[in-house]
Design brief:
- The complex is a heterodimer of chains A (443) and B (270).
- Chain A is built from eight helices and 23 strands.
- Chain A is α/β, with parallel strands linked by helices and 443 residues long.
- In chain A, the strands form five sheets. In chain A, strands 8-7-6-21-22-23-18 form a seven-stranded mixed β-sheet, with helices on one face.
- In chain A, strand 13, helix 7 and strand 14 form a beta-alpha-beta unit.
- The longest helix of chain A is centred in the last third of the chain and has 15 residues.
- The N and C termini of chain A lie far apart (63 Å).
- The relative contact order of chain A is 0.12.
- With 270 residues, chain B is mainly alpha-helical.
- Chain B is 76% helix and 0% strand.
- In chain B, helix 4 packs antiparallel against helix 5 and helix 5 packs antiparallel against helix 6.
- Chain B is elongated and about 80 Å long.
- Classes of the chains: A alpha/beta (443), B mainly alpha (270).
- At the A-B interface, helix 6 of A face helix 2, helix 7, helix 9, helix 11 and helix 16 of B.
Chain lengths: 443, 270
């Protein structure tokens, strides 16, 4: 029998269960679908209860309350009417927050006060830090070391948002896998920074993009109606959003039709045509080029998905003016110079024809990569495979794809800083060493 | 008792495929688990799925058959066998397996989608359509590709009706709107198509491409002066963009095209 919650039933149950008396939070809170004026806060409790978020811009005055109906263990509360670029403090629980009485500390975990900062108005430039994790979910010491290396690197600098490039929870993307690999691994970041995921092949073992069902789709609340900018996709499998002057595009390289006339492609074209942001960053799981723990030259590898992303989607992304492509799947770090127009296998790569600007891209080295501001088709992008946030290749991969300027078989994660018309990416390994970096400057 | 040929195939399957460390790791884990739990059908199913993901059909089939012998009425195994048969373009073989899987677990939408595709491949279009309709009704957020797949099985007026219903649920998904526009033009419902374009233009941050599309549609429909007005509006929209976007090479090319299009064509009526 399905018990349908009603307000009366909710009140009755609440009266039986004093706030914070019996339940505890198993997961979260975590932040989803952040927009300048809205955000979704989710968490899970070990017993059913109401879903209430108390929030405000003053830590001592959490007087605004948002709630969703129902007595549940999986809590999903949208907050709307927020101010852009504003720090909000919040608590989650079964009832509105009551501050501790004078002289008593509110030490209960249920009363813990967290904070997040809303994105600025779309199009407004703001220094932005983005943490990029590809294939993180091994639940291993390596994953922890990569995480801690980033935490040391960023220190007090807040992470504005973070991207998961797929294979977020090994081995099967089950709810239990996600619990260990994501929710127990990054609790502080989840509470304060919105996470934007892509679907990987391991996540897809417990999820189905066609029916929008399964663990990945149950866990994440992603924009199907362009709630955070971009053009609506109508599905959580692929979507776009804006943060400041950056437009992000997430594609489903695993489980959605990748045909040139498929819905994802039609959406991508419409989305690229619609954006007016300074930067376009695309992310998805399967790399367009790699010679790491996968080989993008092999048709059989990953059932041709890498071929599809390179031969079908890359030309459209380049035509649409993409600046940076982030992928995982291959458990290495590989990074190109500024390139354009290479859609074949590695033997067809011609540096003279396909490299728009060579060099290391480093200020103080060969110089930053430079692009003209504006929507310039085929002006070149940097392709970054950063799929080693949970493990590096277990045996030495070839790492000899000619498109790449640098390739490392090292565990680590990438950090992107965007400040106006300058974008910097840094790869930090699991020992905290800065192993690669480059800049793109638009002028 | 398991047939000897199945045992042989399963042994072969356990030792083959050495393409990628990730697959090897998966195989090693499953082989070890099967050594201690040889009667576990789910492990054979999992190993079969591992092979199927890498299009190793023979090995996948061997494992699915071994799983089926251990658990003949297991919906997941039946679905996997049906999916494999479909992937190998054998809809006649797939359908009975998927029928049985559906009977065991009618709420499994993945099975229902596979069954719809098997029926369609067998030219049983009416039944395939019913199955697709069931999936679309039950899906929390129906995938745009599924909606398009369903619409493609219908006559233009029926397809348009399905798309309108889907759009009412999903909102203006570009792929669905574009298909609806094409159908409206095919059916000669030009004013409906123009109204649709007007809605899309109003909602768009950059309006010039939608206005260009409007002009193209009007010109194809012989409404020349309205077409020129639409091209001129597109040009104006382009002009209202910030400098850094308006002055990009792409915008400059589009502006040139629109400037030409917005003037009377040599063969067009005055």
């Amino acid at each position: 029998m399905i018990l349908r919650p009603t307000p009366l039933l909710a009140l009755f149950l609440l009266s039986l269960s004093p706030v914070g008396a019996a339940t505890s939070i198993l997961r979260g809170p975590y932040l989803q679908s952040a927009a300048p004026d809205s955000i979704v806060i989710r968490w899970r409790t070990d017993a059913t209860e109401a879903s209430v978020v108390s929030y405000g811009t003053d830590r001592e005055q959490l007087t605004s309350v948002a709630k969703t109906e129902g007595i549940l263990t999986e809590h999903i509360v949208p907050l709307s009417g927020l101010k852009p670029a504003t720090t909000y403090y919040y608590t989650v629980g079964a009832a509105p927050y009551a501050p501790p009485a004078a002289g008593k500390s509110g030490s209960s975990s249920r009363a813990a006060i967290h904070s997040f900062t809303t994105p600025p108005p779309a199009g407004t430039a703001k220094p932005t830090r983005i943490w990029v994790l590809g294939d993180p979910g091994t639940k291993s010491d390596v994953q922890r070391a990569v995480r801690d290396a980033y935490y040391n690197f960023t220190a007090k600098r807040a992470t504005d948002l973070w991207l998961l490039l797929g294979d977020n929870a090994y081995p099967d993307g089950t709810d239990a896998d996600y619990q260990k690999a994501i929710f127990e691994m990054y609790p502080a970041t989840l509470r304060s920074s919105p996470v934007w995921p892509a679907l990987g092949n391991h996540d897809a073992r417990s999820a189905n993009s066609e029916t929008q069902s399964g663990v990945y789709y149950d866990i994440f609340t992603l924009p199907t109606r362009a709630q955070a900018g971009g053009v609506m996709s109508g599905t959580e499998a692929y979507y776009s959003f804006d943060y400041a002057n950056i437009h992000f595009i997430c594609l489903d390289s695993h489980d959605t039709d990748r045909k040139p006339d498929g819905a994802m492609m039609q959406w991508l074209k419409a989305d690229l045509a619609a954006t007016t942001r300074d930067w376009i960053i695309a992310f998805f799981h399967h790399p367009t080029y790699t010679k790491g723990t996968h080989d993008s030259d092999k048709d059989s590898d990953s059932s041709g998905r890498m071929n599809d992303m390179r031969a079908i989607f890359l030309p459209v992304l380049e035509q649409g003016g993409v600046d940076l492509i982030l992928t995982g799947h291959s458990h290495v770090y590989e990074r190109s110079p500024l390139i354009n127009g290479h859609f074949g296998k590695s033997p067809t790569f011609d540096a003279v024809k396909h490299v728009v600007q060579k060099g290391d891209g480093r200020v103080g080295g060969d110089g930053a990569y430079r692009k003209k501001r504006g929507r310039v088709p085929n002006a070149g992008e940097i392709s970054v495979v950063t799929g080693s946030a949970g493990q590096a290749g277990s045996r030495p991969p070839p790492l000899n794809h000619p498109v790449f300027y640098i390739a490392l078989n090292e565990a680590g994660s990438s950090v992107i800083d965007v400040d106006g018309l300058r974008l910097d990416l840094t790869f930090i390994n699991d020992k905290g060493e800065k192993r690669d970096w480059f800049s793109i400057i638009k002028e | 008792m398991r047939a000897p040929e199945t045992i042989l195939l399963v042994v072969l399957a356990a030792t083959a495929l050495r393409a990628h460390p990730e697959i090897e790791a998966g195989l090693a884990r499953l082989n070890a688990a099967l050594a201690t739990q040889p009667g576990n059908a789910d492990l054979y199913l999992e190993r079969g799925e591992l092979y199927a993901r890498h299009e190793e059909w023979i090995h996948a089939e061997a494992n699915f058959l071994a799983a089926a012998e251990l658990a003949p009425r297991h919906a997941g195994i039946l679905r996997a066998r049906g999916a494999l048969a479909l992937a190998r373009r054998r809809p006649t073989e797939a359908l009975p397996l998927l029928n049985e899987a559906r009977d065991l677990d009618p709420a499994d939408l993945s099975t229902r989608i596979l069954r719809a595709r098997a029926l369609r491949q067998l030219d049983r279009i009416g039944e395939a359509g019913e199955e697709f309709d069931y999936v679309l009704r039950q899906s929390r957020t129906p995938s745009p590709d599924l909606i398009l797949e369903r619409a493609a099985m219908l006559t233009p007026p029926e397809a348009l009706r399905v798309l309108e219903g889907a759009l009412a649920r999903t909102g203006p998904v570009p792929a669905l709107e574009l298909r609806a526009l094409a159908l409206e033009e095919t059916l000669g419902r030009i004013d409906d198509a123009l109204a649709r374009l007007e809605r899309l233009t109003a909602a768009a941050e950059r309006k010039e491409t939608w206005l260009r599309r409007r002009g193209d549609l009007l010109r194809r429909s012989g409404r020349e002066s309205e077409a020129r007005a639409a091209f001129a509006a597109a040009l104006a929209a382009l002009g209202s963009l910030p400098d850094w976007l308006r002055e990009s090479p792409e915008s400059a090319t589009l502006a040139k095209e629109l400037a030409t299009l917005s003037h009377p064509q040599p063969s067009s009526p005055p």
